[in-house]
């Protein structure tokens, strides 16, 4: 039964660690801001995964809470610094972030962009289904975001809504 529970398992220590890390994450997020865990860029995503890994290793290994706190704080401070620098130094933003890429322009699938992004047509179609698109004429645009997520901008067939082209600000039309 040791594979279920061992008397040498540090259960109380793990519970206290959970509580402390919870408080630490709340504290750091309040100081640095909610953007701490936003996934606007690929590096934001990587930092979020890294922080999850640090939390896991802190709770399940011999890494101390202080060591985990330092690592988490260091990563969150780096994300804060990079977010400030990106706003101030535009070339840096281009260097560390991918610009979103248009995959469909209206009802036209941009095959070269799909190929460049290494996305198969069937994957694109799956995203259209997820967005409840019933036919290609409903599609205004499909964008591969800088995070790797795919956004589907669509309308209902009989809709008179005007599309605000500002929604495609910064989106590349060609790879």
UniProtKB/TrEMBL annotation:
Q: Which domain of life is it from?
A: Bacteria
Which is an annotated Pfam family here? Answer: DUF421
Provide this UniProt record's keywords sorted from A to Z: Cell membrane, Coiled coil, Membrane, Transmembrane, Transmembrane helix
**What's the protein here called?**
YetF C-terminal domain-containing protein
Q: How does it sit in the membrane?
A: Multi-pass membrane protein
Q: What is its main location?
A: membrane
Organism, by scientific name, is: Lacinutrix venerupis
Q: Which residues cross the membrane?
A: 12-33, 40-59, 65-85
For this chain, the family text in UniProt reads: Belongs to the UPF0702 family.
